[in-house]
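Ticket #4471: complex job returned nothing on first submit. Input attached below:
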Amino acid sequence: MSETMLRVEDLVVRYGDIQAVKGISFQVERGEILALVGANGAGKTTTLRALSGMQPCEGSVMLEDRGLRGLSPDEILRLGLSHVPEGRGIFGGLTVMENLQLGAWIRRDKAARTRDLGMVMDIFPRLRERATQLAGTLSGGEQQMLAVGRALMSKAKILILDEPSMGLAPKLVQEIFSVIRQLNEKGTTILLVEQNANMALRLAHRACLLETGNLVLEGPASELLTNPRVREAYLGAG
Amino acid sequence: MDYFAQQAINAIQLGSIYALIALGYSMVYGVLVMINFAHGDVFMVSSFFCFLLLLVLPVPFIAALLIVMLATAILGVCIERLAYRPLRNAPRVSAIITALGCGLVIQNTTLSISPYSQRMPELFTPVTWNFAGLTISSLQILIVGISVGLMLALDFFIRKTRYGMAMRAIAQDRVTVPLMGVPVNQVIAVTFAIGAALGGAAGVLYASAYPVISATMGVLVGWKAFVAAVIGGIGNVRGAVLGAYLLGAVEVFTVTVLPSTYRDLVVYTLLLVILIFKPYGLLGRPAVQKV
Ligand SMILES: Nc1ncnc2c1ncn2[C@@H]1O[C@H](COP(=O)(O)OP(=O)(O)OP(=O)(O)O)[C@@H](O)[C@H]1O
Ligand SMILES: [Mg+2]
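Support reply: We reran it on our side without changes. The output follows.
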């Protein structure tokens, strides 16, 4: 089995005439956390949308040995890539439980689904307490937990997370990050997009820096954390 | 008093048929934010399906109902697949014109085959009962019973099943649903199938209650059902049922006190008044704008 989980080559994404992602290449190895960091408008969300099939793109995207380009989001999820979108994408008019069930849509095995529901609720006890409540009534942090929990229900091989810390209080950010670490330790490969570069680089194994649609730096996360260019631009240190 | 109660029974019968049609408008609007203007003509053509079926093969009532519902569901799915899906991301106006066009095609095809009204053969020989001064026929009970049964089944389907859950999710956020692995096109096709099948049931029930059918029925009856869906809050299935029974009652009771030519005037005035005070209908809520 190959060690590379996701291999992206010469990815180009356009909105009309504008190239938002200008031919980037990177790969995510099996079992690692790769952080993709960059300023507002760098093209992070656009990249993730292309990977999960929400946005047409050029170039090549391989999940293990399967090409993903041109497939629909539901086909890509079935192959094992689960995307937690920016802004969480919670269905506010459905209950917490229904949101989780929707996350398990592609899985037929009822016993395994029930077991994983228990697993997700052990990770996020708050969701168990609120299971029958409408998801729209959850706080921002609880919604983020639901979004991650829902993605776990698909039993994907690789989880891609778009700004899981967005809009959360520092304590909740830590909670979410520690869950991401636990999931990774249990074997889930993770591609993490973050504005909060400081925390993301401390959590990740490797990282890529995106600037206006170009990949400008790639390396071990600890190196990016100390790189003067990164520190100056994203970590607020001179 | 007896007269009043008798009219109430008629109102419930008419409201039940309106409700079955209104549900189709409302369900499609819920998932696609689109008004399926062809739906009234789908209802109309289903009564012709029933007419043709009985010409060829005089099957019992329930069999006719099921066969026509199936045929109409297939028609609904074909319309979605061939006419609406290619335009799903086109400007709103294109979808409206296409839907109106589909309705015209169905209506004129029917007209060309059957330029005159047709007398529906009797599907069912009703028994009537006199009860405390009221006359109730077994046909009325059948119509109301089947309608209410279908509505309860639909309500269960939407609240409790996988596909129902997916429909509610699509109604809220069509962009995120595919990320859950839900095949959106399939769910939309199922929505059209169910909406059209209910319209088909309405076609059979309408033709048994008012056994003269014509190609313009889709415009006359279908539009009323659309008004009912709007009064209830389009996109909301319980609202559609509420609006339909309200409309049925208003129509029937208007005619008991005013000349029947006032009926539509009263109906559309009611629509305007309700929309002034409740712009999204009785049970509707404003759509949340998604960025
Ligand atoms: N739907 C769209 N249509 C046109 N341009 C878009 C669209 N979405 C994004 N863009 C543009 O593409 C570029 C990259 O946007 P993207 O959302 O990928 O950035 P990002 O790195 O995720 O930023 P942020 O950190 O603010 O979320 C931006 O210049 C943005 O204006
Ligand atoms: Mg973004």
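The interface with chain B takes residues 52-54, 72-74, 77-78, 82-83, 85, 89, 91-94, 98, 101-103, 105-106, 150, 154 of chain A (CB under 8 Å). Closing as resolved unless it happens again.
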